[in-house]
Structure formats: structure tokens, C-alpha cells
């Protein structure tokens, strides 16, 4: 991704001029005075500026030979004091040599300052940057420095096209400073064959007929790319129709967002089952996400389904709505012993729905509220312990969960699919209770932080930390789980469960080939049901892995060595 600039920044022309007049008073003499001895130097024309201030800029001294260069240098030095709009030199011949007279014309007294054309920076802020003050003679040198400071401030805020287009001193001592902030005349989108243009432009912070901001352009490019619909996004600035205006040309390269897969699986209780999955993250080019998962053929999992739909823009405030419905019966491994071996295998049915509303708060913060209903049923024993013979266990772990979750996310990552800088912080609180019609009462809190540091041309250090706490009566399906490819590699999936958890990961990511990335990592973590966090009981692992980008999505392959030996992990989906 890149931004190209196709414009020229025209520097502010000189506001004031100096007349370097090397003249000889006709009544004095007509001969060239150069070479004669300077007998005296005086100043005339000043009414406000002290003569001592002017003479402090004069380098020519009585007794020296007069030269044109010395006179011009003195005139330039006097002018650069900033309080005069013109300086003239005259010479009077005397028997001893020549008298030098510098005649100055003072700038007018500044009575009022008017700032025009500014919409992105307040007049009060710009006025505070001016060192020229009303009631005093206008200092053109200071004014030029003020003009440069104003432009520099605008540029630092991202308004790189802004310039002070005019500075005019009017009658009555009124100074008018006119600012041209550099308008964005329009946005042109190219390369989108499927994606509708408004789906792209609605993500942009930049708006037509507003001053162009390069920081907003960079963020807009990130947001468009983070949609996941495009292989590449480029932006270029083209000249507009009006002076100092531009048109933003956005070119995208679309990638496939639809998915269709047919597969199968096997379990001891079901035997062979078929799987069909349909989905599109950019449904009909609208930006909506839709997914259908269907399983068939098994005795227990026949006609399993899961349907989800997300609409990211319900209104101009970017309110999002997502929901999913599911009815799935699958084989579960539960309750690992201390050596990581399976304690029980059984078929469990989960049926329910969840509905999520989201809305941004500022540029990087998103708030969500989720209503969830889930019913877990113990279907059939497969091997190991038979929980169907333990009514207390069934009552404590199977039933209906109804909860409301609140989530707040801060996300400043530059690329949500493969971050190189920025961070993400997520805070989640889930409240389940019989008051909502469920069978369980509990409160569950989770905090997660992810940080990304670019340490080379294409190398990244990624850090993640998660802490969780819950109280109340919680079923097994709601407990924190640590272990497996997403939390603690080198151990079985969800090997450690409890109402408290800690987990941390550090990864060093580096490119191997196009669309292939290598990873070296270490994981630490565990979950507990006892009181307190037992830091001396944490499990750890180290390992290596590769990431491969494929047409069907990212593939992850990791190998980790933990306290219980080595284990390989194969999974689909992006990394944290």
C-alpha cells in the first residue's frame, strides 16, 4: 500500500520588497562618491524606531572608504530589521569626504489582524502563533516567520497542501492573512468490479469538499484494506480543477471473498459425516458477511447447522448488527487428567443463538453488546467416564445459559490480518443469570492486550496477554479454557479449565517466501478452579511454526515443546 503525491507546493512569494537605490544628491556633486572617505553616517525618516536600533545594523564606519557593496549591505541589514518597507541612501560631499544619509520609510502601525479561509484550525490558535501585535509597527520579518510557522503547524497536523495564499496590509493598519487549506474536490475509485463504491468510500475519513489531510488518507487506506476484500489498496493525488485542490484516486485489487467447501469427518458415535459450508465476507458487494455450515449423515450429528449474518453498517453512525443460529451435536473430549489424557468422551448437543450490536466511539474504539442463549444437552456416552450416571454433574453442567455481554475494544493495528505495529485491547464482561430465564448465575470478566513491534524491514515481534476471572455457578462450557493452538501450544486443546486463567504469548515473525511466514514463539498459561492465581503452577512451551496464505484462507502449522513433550498443531485462520 502506498500514497503517491502528484502536486507541487508553491512557496509563498515575498511580501515586501526593498529598493536598493544607490543615488547621489545632485546639489552636492555629480561625481561618483565611491572611494571617498566617509565623514559621518546619519538616519532620517524614522519617527517610531529609535535611531540607535537602526545604527546598530550599520557596519560602515566613519573614516572608511565608501564602496557600493558596503552601502548595499547596510541597506539590506536595515531593511531586515523588519520595520521598514523601503530604504534609500543619499550622499553629501564635504571637503573631508562624503556624508552618508540613510532615509527609511516605516511600516504602518498595525491596528487589526483578520485571518480568513481557516476551517480546520481556529482563529484563536492561529492568532496565538503571531508575534506581530496590534498597536506596534508591523515587522515584516516577524510576519514572514509567522507565516512559515502557520504553514508548518498545518502540515504537522496532516494538512500538507495548506499554504498562506495572501498577506495584505490595507488602509487603516488592517492586516489580512488568507489561508488556503488545500481542498479535496472528490474521490475516484477504480478496480472494484464486485464491491460497491459506497462500501469503500464509507470507510474513508476523507470527505469531498473538505481540506485534504494526509494522516486521514493513510488511516482511510488502512481501513479499506482491513475490510479483507482486497489484495492491495493504493491512493494517488491528482490535481483538481481549482488551484491548490486535488482529487484522490483510490485503486483496489479485489480478491475472492466467497467460500464453498465440501468435506467429511468421522467420530466413534457417528461414523462418517458430510460437511458443506458456504460463506461470503462481501455478500453481493455490500460488505455484509454471511455463512452457512451444514453437517449430515451421522446418527447424532445429522442435520447439524450454523447460520450467521453480519451487517457492518446499519446507519451513518456505523451501527453494526450480527446474529447466528445454530444446532450442533458433536463429539467432545472432556476433563483431561494431569498427564493430559482424555477422561471422558461423549456426544453433546448445543443449540441457541446470539445477537450482537456494535457502534464505534471515536476512531479506534468499538463498543458491543451481545445477547446470548445457549442450551447444552448430554446426548450419549462414547468412552471414559459416563456422566449420564451422575445427575449432579449433569445438573451443574448442562442446561440453558442466557447472558448479556458488554465488550469494549481499542484497536490501532495498521493491518488486522498481519499487523506490524499498533495494539489492540479488549475488555469483556458477561453477566448470566436466572433473572434472564437461564439455569446458571455467573459473572465472567476477560481482559486481553495485543502489541506489535516492527523490528526490521519485515520482521515483527507480537505480544499477547490474557487474564480472566469468573464467579458464581458456571457450566463447563462457560469456563475459561487454556491449551491448544490459540492459547498454549504443546498441550491438548482446552486441556486446562477453570474460573480463572492467565495466558501470554511472544512471537517473532519473519518472512520466508512470498505468502509464507516463519514464527518462533513461547507460550505461558493455565486455568484454575481453586482460589487465587497460582503463578508457580503455570505451564510453558517453546516452538516454531509457519504461516501460509492460501486461496481458502491462512493455514497455520506449529510445533511446540512443553512439560508433557512435543505436540504439533494444524489450524485454519489468521494469527492474533
TrEMBL record:
Leader peptide range in chain numbering: 1-30
Annotated keywords: Cell outer membrane, Membrane, Signal, Transmembrane
Keyword Transmembrane: yes
Stored Pfam families: Omp85 (PF01103), POTRA (PF07244)
Localization per Swiss-Prot or TrEMBL: Membrane
Highest rank taxon of the organism: Bacteria
Keyword Zinc: no
InterPro entries: Bac_surfAg_D15, BamA/TamA_POTRA, D15-like, POTRA
POTRA domain segment(s): 36-107, 108-182
PANTHER family per UniProt: SORTING AND ASSEMBLY MACHINERY SAMM50 PROTEIN FAMILY MEMBER, TRANSLOCATION AND ASSEMBLY MODULE SUBUNIT TAMA
Protein name: Surface antigen (D15)
Organism: Pelosinus fermentans JBW45
Amino acid at each position: 500500500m502506498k500514497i503517491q503525491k502528484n502536486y507541487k507546493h508553491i512557496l509563498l512569494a515575498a511580501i515586501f520588497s526593498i529598493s536598493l537605490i544607490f543615488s547621489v544628491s545632485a546639489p552636492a556633486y555629480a561625481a561618483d562618491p565611491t572611494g571617498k572617505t566617509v565623514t559621518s553616517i546619519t538616519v532620517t525618516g524614522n519617527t517610531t524606531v529609535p535611531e540607535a536600533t537602526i545604527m546598530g545594523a550599520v557596519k560602515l564606519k566613519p573614516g572608511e572608504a565608501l564602496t557600493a557593496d558596503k552601502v548595499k549591505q547596510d541597506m539590506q541589514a536595515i531593511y531586515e530589521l523588519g520595520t521598514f518597507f523601503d530604504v534609500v541612501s543619499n550622499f553629501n560631499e564635504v571637503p573631508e569626504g562624503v556624508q552618508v544619509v540613510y532615509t527609511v520609510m516605516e511600516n504602518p502601525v498595525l491596528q487589526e489582524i483578520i485571518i480568513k479561509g481557516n476551517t480546520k484550525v481556529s482563529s484563536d490558535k492561529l492568532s496565538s502563533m503571531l508575534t506581530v501585535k496590534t498597536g506596534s509597527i508591523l515587522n515584516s520579518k516577524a510576519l514572514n516567520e509567522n507565516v512559515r510557522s502557520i504553514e508548518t503547524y498545518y502540515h504537522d497536523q496532516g494538512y500538507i497542501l495548506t499554504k498562506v495564499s495572501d498577506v495584505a496590509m490595507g488602509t487603516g493598519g488592517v492586516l489580512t492573512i488568507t489561508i488556503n487549506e488545500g481542498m479535496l474536490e472528490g474521490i475516484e475509485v477504480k478496480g472494484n468490479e464486485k464491491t460497491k463504491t459506497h462500501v469503500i468510500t464509507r470507510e474513508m475519513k476523507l470527505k469531498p469538499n473538505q481540506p485534504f489531510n494526509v494522516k486521514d488518507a493513510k488511516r482511510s487506506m488502512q481501513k479499506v484494506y482491513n475490510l479483507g476484500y482486497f489484495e492491495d489498496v493504493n491512493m494517488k493525488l491528482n490535481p483538481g480543477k481549482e488551484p491548490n485542490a486535488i482529487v484522490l484516486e483510490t485503486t483496489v485489487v479485489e480478491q475472492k471473498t466467497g467460500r464453498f467447501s465440501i468435506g467429511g469427518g468421522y467420530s466413534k458415535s457417528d461414523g462418517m459425516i458430510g460437511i458443506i459450508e458456504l460463506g461470503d465476507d462481501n455478500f453481493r458487494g455490500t460488505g455484509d458477511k454471511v455463512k452457512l455450515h451444514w453437517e449430515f449423515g451421522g446418527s447424532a450429528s445429522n442435520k447439524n447447522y450454523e447460520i450467521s449474518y453480519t451487517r457492518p453498517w446499519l446507519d451513518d453512525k456505523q451501527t453494526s448488527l450480527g446474529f447466528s443460529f445454530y444446532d450442533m451435536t458433536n463429539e467432545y473430549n472432556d476433563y483431561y487428567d494431569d498427564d493430559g489424557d482424555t477422561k471422558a468422551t461423549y456426544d453433546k448437543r448445543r443449540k441457541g443463538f446470539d445477537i450482537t450490536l456494535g457502534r464505534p466511539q471515536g476512531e479506534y474504539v468499538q463498543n458491543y453488546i451481545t445477547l446470548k442463549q445457549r442450551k447444552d444437552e448430554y446426548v450419549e456416552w462414547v468412552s471414559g467416564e459416563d456422566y449420564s450416571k451422575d445427575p449432579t454433574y449433569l445438573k451443574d453442567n448442562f442446561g440453558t445459559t442466557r447472558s448479556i455481554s458488554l465488550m469494549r475494544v481499542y484497536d490501532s493495528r495498521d493491518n488486522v490480518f498481519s499487523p506490524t505495529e499498533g495494539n489492540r485491547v479488549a475488555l469483556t464482561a458477561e453477566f448470566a443469570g436466572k433473572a434472564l430465564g437461564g439455569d446458571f448465575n455467573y459473572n465472567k470478566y476477560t481482559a486481553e492486550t495485543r502489541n506489535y513491534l516492527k523490528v526490521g524491514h519485515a520482521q515483527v515481534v507480537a505480544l499477547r496477554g490474557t487474564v480472566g476471572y469468573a464467579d458464581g455457578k458456571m457450566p463447563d462450557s462457560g469456563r475459561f479454557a487454556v491449551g491448544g493452538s490459540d492459547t498454549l501450544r504443546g498441550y491438548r486443546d482446552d486441556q486446562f479449565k477453570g474460573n480463572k486463567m492467565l495466558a501470554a504469548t511472544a512471537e517473532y515473525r519473519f518472512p520466508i517466501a512470498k505468502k509464507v511466514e516463519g514464527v518462533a514463539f513461547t507460550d505461558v498459561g493455565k486455568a484454575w478452579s481453586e482460589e487465587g492465581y497460582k503463578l508457580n503452577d503455570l505451564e510453558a512451551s517453546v516452538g516454531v511454526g509457519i504461516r501460509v496464505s492460501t486461496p481458502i484462507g491462512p493455514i497455520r502449522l506449529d510445533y511446540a515443546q512443553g512439560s508433557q513433550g512435543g505436540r504439533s498443531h494444524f489450524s485454519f485462520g489468521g494469527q492474533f
